[in-house]
Specification:
With 219 residues, this protein is α/β, with parallel strands linked by helices. The chain is built from 7 helices and 9 strands; from the N terminus they run ααβαβαββαβαββββα. The strands form 2 sheets. The protein has a 5-stranded parallel β-sheet with strand order 3-2-1-4-5.
């Protein structure tokens, strides 16, 4: 099963420990330091839109882009009451096209690592550069190769009263990819529904990403 298919409905519950407000506050600190006051933005691999909504509440006109229709459906539902609702678009980042240029692009929670082919990652970064207005800023984070290698053989557990999730990490040196199989149990009335997803992340080095950025035109 594709990543974030069954997980979408429970994603926010299982990531309750993620301080999205702190993430956005960090973005705002960077923007202030760089003297950038964005009016428009794109949230790449936006998932259920937690970062997207917080940036929209800052008055920024924002587009949320994700490959998972299920995650975007959740994001759309969360955005219904906003006075400044985001536009959500289902796209592969390596095929990114926007209806307008933006002043800011963000990509949170190691989403670039999910692009498993380095050529596609380089293309995604090139397309981000193309959609940014002159002087625009791109902020993203990744898992380090050291962190992904350390996940090999590890077992992790997340749960609440209605969701139980156990996942196991495996790092393959030949492919440079960390895979983690995820068994997900979701309560439906008196019964539990079991689903399985496999998530895979490529261990990009700082050197690789720097080369991709420079080739795209970033400084």
């Amino acid at each position: 099963m594709d990543a974030y298919h069954a997980l979408a409905a429970s994603y926010d519950r299982l990531t309750g420990d993620v301080d999205y407000a702190a993430v956005v506050d960090f973005y705002l600190q960077i923007l202030e330091k760089e003297g950038c006051r964005p009016e428009t933005a794109v949230d790449l691999a936006c998932g259920t839109g937690s970062v997207t909504l917080l940036l929209a509440q800052e008055g920024i006109r924002i587009i949320g882009v994700d490959l998972s229709e299920e995650m975007l459906c959740v994001a759309q539902q969360k955005a219904q009451e906003l006075e400044n609702p985001p536009l959500f678009v289902c796209q592969d980042l390596s095929r990114l096209r926007l209806p307008r240029g933006v002043d800011l692009a963000v990509c949170a929670l190691d989403s670039l690592d999910y692009i498993l082919d380095p050529k596609d990652c380089a293309e995604a970064i090139r397309r981000v550069y193309q959609v940014l207005n002159p002087g625009g800023i791109f902020i993203f984070d990744v898992n380090t190769p050291e962190k992904l290698r350390a996940m090999d053989g590890q077992v992790f557990l997340d749960e609440d009263d209605d969701v139980y999730c156990v996942w196991r990490g495996e790092f393959d040196e030949a492919s440079n990819i960390c895979s983690y199989g995820m068994d997900l149990f979701q309560r439906e009335g008196k019964h539990w529904k079991r689903s399985y997803e496999e998530h895979r992340e490529y261990a990009y080095s700082e050197k690789q990403l720097t080369e991709f950025l420079k080739e795209a035109g970033f400084t």
